[in-house]
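If your schedule permits, I should be very grateful for your opinion on a structural question. Kindly check, if you would, that the fold set down in the C-alpha cells agrees with what the sequence suggests. Thank you for your consideration; the sequence and its C-alpha cells are set out here:
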Amino acid sequence: MKSSRRKSTESTRLLPSGGCPTCYCNLRKNILNLSEYEVTTRSSINEINLCDFIGFDLILLDIMMPLNGLDICRQIRSEINVPIIFITAKDMEEDLVDGIEVGADDYITKPFTVKEFLARVKMHLRREDRNKDKKNIFDFDKVKVDIDLQSVFIEKKKVKLTKREFLIVSTLASHSNKVFSIEEIYNRVYPGSSDTQFRSISEYIYQIRNKFKAYGINPFETMRGGGYRWNIQSVSAD
C-alpha cells in the first residue's frame, strides 16, 4: 500500500496498495516521488481497517494481495469517495468487470509504461479537483467537522480525537438526520471481521462526549431502543 502527497501548496495524497514484489512496489513509489508526490507504501494488507484508507485523494489497489483487492474495495467503497484504481497482472475481462462492479474507477494492467501510469493517476486527480465543490466541511455553528483534514473544531479550537473517534463523529455528523444503531457504527469502525466487541462503541461514544463536554457540548443524542443520532446539545462543562 502506498500513500502520497503532492509536494506543493495543494497537498495531494495517494494511497497505493499491493501484493506485488517489493521491487515492483518500490518502482511505483519512485515513479510517484519523481513526480513530486510524497509516498508511503504498505506492501500488504491482512485485515481491512477503514481508518487506514481515510484522508487520501486516490487509492491504488492490487487485485492479487494477501487480502483480495476486490474485497477491500467492496468493503470501503461506501465510505471512501476518492478514486480507486486497480493495478493487476490479470487481463481477463471478468476480473476487470468485477473491479468496476465493486466500485473501482479505473484499472491498469501490468506491464505498463511510466507514462501510462502517471497519466492515469493525474487524470483522476484532475477530475477530483473539478469536483471539489462537494461538501467536505459540515458546519454546525460552533462545531465544524472537516472531512479533508480529519479534524473537528469547536469555536475554531481543534478537538483532539483518535482516528476511530473522528470516524464516528464524521459518520454521524454527515448523516445528521439518521439514527445509527450500535451495530451500524460498529460495522463502519470495524469493517470486515473483528474480535472487538460491540461495547467498544459505547466506550468511544463516552470518550467523545467527554472531549466535547469541555466546550459545553454533547454532540450525540442517545435514542430510545438503542443507537445514536447527531444532535448538538448544551451541557455544563466541568
